[in-house]
Amino acid sequence: MAVKPVGDAALQQAISALQQGDFSTAERLLLPLSRKGTLRGAACYQLAVLFHRRGDNEQALTFMQEAVTLAPGEAVYQRDLGVILKQLGLLEQAIAAYQQALALQPAMVEARCNLGEALRVAGHQQEAIAQLSQAVVEAPFLPLAHYNLGVAQWDAGDARGAAASFQRLLELEPNHFAGHLNRGAACQALDQLAQAIEHYQMARSLQPNHPDAGRNLAHALLLSGQVEEAIQLYQAILARHPNDVATAVHLLTAQLYQPGLDNATLFQHHRRFARRYARPPVMAFRPTWQPGERLRLGYICSHWTHHPVANNITPLLQHHDRSRFELFLYQDGGEDSHSAWFQQQADHWRQTRHLRDDQVSDLMQEDGLHLLVILAGHFDGNRLLLAAQHPAPLCISFHDGTTSGLAEMDYWLSDPVLHPADTSEQFTEKLWRLPVFYAYPPLEDAPAVAPPPALANGYVTFGSFNNPAKIQPQLLDLWQKILAAVPNSRLLLKYREFFADDRMVNAWRQRLVAAGMDPDRVSFAVGDTDNNHLAQYSQMDIALDPFPFTGATTTFQALWMGVPVISLAGERFIQRMAASILHHGGYGQGIATSPQEYVDKAVALASDLTGLQTLRNTLRPALSSSPMCNGQTYARTVEEAFLAMWQKCLPGS
């Protein structure tokens, strides 16, 4: 907010004091001028500036509104009124003020930048982009315009546009910390991981102790497969910033990929996290309910988009019985072309991305939720700690990788394969085992199943299309044994567009050589559109599931494309996801219970080309007729679970 000089001597003296930080003198001089005379508007404006700089936006607003009333034609007053209103969270009023400033002075680019930013925060993404795109045209050398446009494009799901805007910003201002941080995020979303790491490292060099730079770098290292390095960096950030909840959640997530971590230690990490960061509500809340009334059921997710978690519950949302449930969907992240479908499934759609946990809890209590389902709490910025606020009488964890560690999380949905009766996994929630945990819509537009490529190639191709973070040295050791035992066999690796970057490919070739593999027997593929991705399973004879973090969506996709999957079932949920899908999808023989059995099953399957041909023809029909692809029945089983949970929590139950 600028100090606007005027001609009066007393006013000039006050402005000079304000510029020097002498607020007491400035206030003493300005207050009389604000009460009478021709300079009332200017004095009120300067008082608003003064209180804004003091951090008293309520008082600043009072004087700025008075200034605008006295001088309605001053575009600067309107612009700075918008600044104060936005900081007070009064977004729609701020937008109106910026619009009025532009009506008075259309060339005021700073007001246009501020308008675009306010529109973005208010959720008007396309309007924000339109305003900021115009600002970039009007002021191509203004860094703020490019920065705000990049943020708006990012929020609208346009990572490529955001990357270009942040790149232009950095060309204008090479040492812009947030520019490097955000371009890194955009490059990461585009699977340009090596570039992302470079930008995060540059951001850290500019602000070494900023937790965002370290956290983003650690996450990129995790995605690249450097799990131990990521964990060490998260721990270093927490040592310096112990109250950084986001880093603490990321550390818990990274530990799910860590080989050798036993169940007791994992549980201790989560209980320690809950004791350190959970903030229980001040008062208990219980909505009214009468028998026969619909239960108000909420789902919160950071990705109501084309994302594995959202796709996993698509059949449930599609087949929910609306006579028994009133659906509230809380959109906690960006949107894409799939978001409209999810919004159509909701009776009530709430945007919560920019709200704190306590504000989200207040909103849910206003909605009168009976049950809240927190999706994938550990992952992708979801609300792991929201249950501690207990915004509904029942809080349920769904599609998370392990316990929340929270006493306030009432239930954790599972199934008998994910958590057998003798499970050694520890958790704070009560387990509720569904007959079948996973549900997927049939991939009706998928390419036809192709013959095993070994028939034409003359050699067997093993493959993994999983996240590289899941491919750790212990797994590579087993893969090396499999390749050594199957003459002339090959290994195919793909994960979205990661291996389009030669630097990523070279780094992984070095890891494969260190594991004893012949790099000439390993190839890398790219391709992220749905049909392109699924078609590439035609290049694979046998899928090798990773551990200790097994595959879910990749397992389903491989089976749908006729590719058998070999998976090593471990001792907790995250280590048994593929086993659950294989068991319920009709290929339980792909489940191994020891590392040696994992190798033996893969080698035996590779030696039976006739068996591979048979599997190629039978896996999809078996999967399509399995309970996982019966969305209507699946929805009924989940609903019966919710209703039973609710009955258990009623008074007298």
The CATH architecture of the domain at 454-629 comes to 3-Layer(aba) Sandwich
Determine the N-to-C terminus distance.
60 Å
CATH homologous superfamily annotation of the domain at 454-629: Glycogen Phosphorylase B
Percent range of helical residues? 40-55%
The coarse silhouette is globular
Which fold name corresponds to the CATH topology of the domain at 454-629?
A: Rossmann fold
The level-1 CATH class of the domain at 454-629: Alpha Beta
Counting helices, strands and paired strands, the structural category is alpha/beta
Descriptive account of the structure:
With 653 residues, the protein is of the alpha/beta class. Among the domains are: 175-255, Tetratricopeptide repeat domain (Serine Threonine Protein Phosphatase 5, Tetratricopeptide repeat, Alpha Horseshoe); 295-409, Rossmann fold (3-Layer(aba) Sandwich), CATH 3.40.50; 454-629, Glycogen Phosphorylase B (Rossmann fold). Helix content is 52%, strand content 9%. The protein is built from 29 helices and 13 strands. The strands form two sheets. It has a seven-stranded parallel β-sheet, with helices on one face. The chain has a six-stranded parallel β-sheet with strand order 10-9-8-11-12-13, with helices on both faces. β8, α22 and β9 (490-494) form a beta-alpha-beta unit. α7 packs antiparallel against α8 (125-138) and α22 runs parallel beside α27 (595-606). It is globular and about 95 Å long. The chain starts with 8 loop residues before the first helix and ends with a helix.
Short description:
52% of the residues lie in helices and 9% in strands. The chain is α/β, with parallel strands linked by helices and 653 residues long. The protein has a seven-stranded parallel beta sheet with strand order 3-2-1-4-5-6-7, with helices on one face. Strands 10-9-8-11-12-13 form a six-stranded parallel beta sheet, sandwiched between helices.
